[in-house]
Design goal:
Helices cover about 25% and strands about 20% of the residues. It has about 140 residues and is an alpha+beta fold. It has a five-stranded mixed beta sheet with strand order 2-1-3-4-5. α2 packs parallel to α3. The protein binds tetrahydrodeoxyuridine. Tetrahydrodeoxyuridine binds near residues 24, 58, 60 and 93.
Length: about 140
């Protein structure tokens, strides 16, 4: 039993439910995500694929976007749980980690679960070493062309 199992137990059913709405005819890999806000609200997302494959949206980014659209403060989100199908819990893709870096709190929890008991839990800050950060865009002097 992990100290953070409580949040996984709370968010997993929501992530599983969101995965049920996944549009993933190309990969047949329905993913769901549930994000908790500081005010105790839960936002969900699922992967939505497209015949133009590069336009596919991951479940995690869909859930994070829903939280921001409802007024959650960027950088404040405390927990996100991902559901992937099968008996192994899979970590989020790099693009989603980059977005989590900017929208979730540094000590926030990111967990992955599946159809079995396998659960993986990280601190957001530990699963993306050396992220590209907003600070990089400050103090830039643009030269005239
Ligand atoms: N997918 C996610 O939704 N989240 C991830 O972190 C990794 C991959 C989706 C994208 C695509 O629809 C399917 O899973 C297979 O890559």
């Amino acid at each position: 039993m992990h100290e953070d199992d409580g949040i996984v137990d709370e968010l997993k059913p929501q992530a599983v439910k969101a995965a049920g709405h996944s549009y993933s005819p190309y990969s047949q890999f329905p993913v769901g995500a549930a994000v908790a806000s500081l005010t105790g609200r839960i936002y969900t997302g699922c992967n939505v694929e497209n015949a133009s494959f590069g336009l596919t949206q991951c479940a995690e980014r869909a859930a994070l976007t829903a939280a921001i659209a409802d007024g959650a403060i960027p950088g404040s989100l405390p927990a996100l749980v991902i559901y992937t199908p099968g008996l192994r819990a899979h970590p989020p893709c790099g693009a989603c980690r980059q977005v989590m870096h900017e929208l979730m709190a540094p000590d926030s929890l990111v967990a992955s679960c599946c159809d079995g008991d396998d659960v993986k839990i990280w601190r957001r800050s530990e699963h993306l070493p050396e992220p590209f950060s907003p600070g990089a865009l400050k103090h830039i002097t643009h030269k005239d062309p």
